[in-house]
Amino acid sequence: MKIKSYPMGEYQTNCYIVSYNNKDIIIDPGVGATKWVCSNVTNPIAILNTHGHFDHVWSNSEIKDILKIPIYCPKDDTFMLEGDTFGLGVPPSKADYKVKPDEVIDLEGVKIKFRHFPGHTPGCSVIEIKDVWFSGDFLFEGSIGRWDFPYSSGKDMLKSLQKVSQITNDYTLYPGHGKATKLQRELRNINYWISQVKMSIR
Q1: What 3-state DSSP class applies to 162?
Q2: 7, 61, 72, 111: which is deepest, by most CB within 10 A?
Q3: What's the total number of domains in the chain?
Q4: pTM of the model
Q5: Per-residue pLDDT tens digits for 90-135
């Protein structure tokens, strides 16, 4: 498996191209991602969104139209694709597949799990391919996603952090912003983040 990444737009949102078995999967094509994506794929088969925030889905529609490939998005976030939820002018797109929480999908022989960790958004998910997690805005190096946005939930974030704290396997994390890290390294600080979320929702 080969992974290419490029930070897109003002928020430096990581767009990823995962090449596996001679197939290319595009993850979170943000602002201005189209040219880079189209220049770096040879056999694209799908666009995957970790969640529905504008800086992760901005180029969905344009890339879909050019490459003729489907969009997969967690079902609880698809409303953000279809409507300009935050009034920022994001081009609307439509998910071809509304992925259920913790669903495993098969993309031409590539098994992919959407691990559901709501809180940052209702559908916020980690995309798991083999031993790699594309963690979107759930986990970062040294931090976690915010839970104070519209449609965010501190209570859901607390449950998600408690859920991830029980995972004993290690994964390489490729987050939505910043550089790659390892799951077990980030779990060393998970109790701190659990306490921070708890304090905020009292």
Answers
A1: helix
A2: 72
A3: 1
A4: 0.96
A5: 999 999 999 999 999 999 999 999 999 999 999 999 999 999 999 9
